[in-house]
Design goal:
By secondary structure, this protein is of the alpha/beta class. It has 9 helices and 10 strands.
Length: about 280
């Protein structure tokens, strides 16, 4: 569970301004991933979600049909407007798409939020196969954004692109985590959902520790947006002062239940149930 207001009280005894999460990502018109999933997740876990939109995607559960980029300077202005006024406790990046957007994001973070926890979800390929990150942007991600991160959360295919090595099992995840720490992030979470097996392993590594989380695989096609959701849930935990391991454990539990109770919408990779914490669907059933 996230801390209560009493646990986050400031010196004056009133509830502090913790839980502010700025999300920098693209949209998903189908509502299952991207900014829509991010805002749902932060809100339902008790945080306050803010946004800087990087792209508008035309998509549904069958895939991405189009991408409309937001200019890098507009992304920059969205971030600055929020940071100058409301402030932030944690940030999460998702789809950045182009190198100039990566550069703008890194510049604003370094200038206005150098101490806030940054979770980088290196969104590269949609479930339907559409490319969501240009090659030049991948290079920029590695060189200027990942070094600012408290945590990066690649799945196995993304980690393979970032490290240049295949990842087919738990040992491969551990080796990839070690390699990615060399890019400068404080911690790395290599997700194992794309690796075959009845059990899913996620590997969390820092310079001092290595922790393996596991959960039984739920056989379903309704997993759209799980990566976005997990990263945003972790960022929410960090925004309330949880440590990395606690935030990852909270996020994994939230996502697992969201998959288990997925509503079954769409003809393709359907969305998960972000609202399971409310219990409304179960009561209706």
């Amino acid at each position: 569970m996230l801390p209560s207001e009493d646990e986050t009280a400031n010196d004056n005894g009133s509830a502090s301004n913790r839980g502010r999460v700025l999300i920098i990502s693209g949209s998903d018109s189908g509502g299952g991933a991207g900014m829509q999933a991010d805002i749902k997740t932060v809100t339902l876990l008790g945080g306050y979600a803010m946004s800087a939109l990087t792209a508008i995607t035309i998509q549904n559960t069958l895939g991405v049909q189009g991408i409309f980029d937001v200019p890098a300077d507009i992304v920059r202005q969205q971030m600055e407007a929020v940071l100058d006024d409301i402030g932030v406790d944690a940030l999460k990046t998702g789809m950045l798409h182009r190198a100039d957007i990566v550069e703008a994001v890194a510049e604003v973070l370094s200038d206005k939020a150098p101490d806030a926890a940054l979770v980088v979800d290196p969104v590269m390929i949609a479930k339907g196969g559409a490319a969501l990150l240009e090659q030049s942007a991948t290079d920029a991600l590695k060189q200027i954004l990942i070094p600012l991160a408290a945590l990066i959360t690649p799945n196995a295919p993304e980690a393979a692109v970032l490290t240049g090595r295949e990842i087919n099992d738990l040992d491969g995840q551990k080796r990839a985590a070690d390699a990615l720490l060399g890019l400068g992030a404080d911690a790395v979470l290599i997700k194992g959902g794309h690796i075959e097996g009845e059990t899913i392993f996620d590997v969390l590594a820092t310079a001092e520790t290595l922790e393996v989380f596991s959960s039984p695989r739920i056989e379903t096609r309704h997993t759209h947006g799980t990566g976005c959701t997990l990263a945003s849930a972790i960022a929410t935990g960090l925004s309330f002062g949880l440590d990395i391991s606690e935030a990852v454990a909270l996020a994994r539990e939230y996502v697992h239940e969201a998959i288990r109770t997925a509503p079954g919408f769409g003809k393709g990779h359907g969305p998960v149930n972000h609202g399971h914490v409310l219990g409304v669907r179960e009561e209706a059933d």
